[in-house]
Predict the 3D structure of the following.
Amino acid sequence: MKNKKTGNNGETDGKKSEEKLAMCMGIGMCFGLPLGTLIGVLTKNIGLWLPMGLCFGMMFGIIVGSLLKGEQ
């Protein structure tokens, strides 16, 4: 059985990286929501661009979170 690395406060590195990924996803969605709203208002199709903005923001957050996870 392999031992997991623990941080200073006893948490595993895996849990910290999952938290970092979730935080990046949330931040990405917070940026995607106003962006999608803005594009939706400009194109008069907010029903399409609001969820698209959330999706693009979440994808951006996943990519950034994965890059940060790989640096560890």
User: Anything to note?
Assistant: Helices lie at 13-43, 46-70.
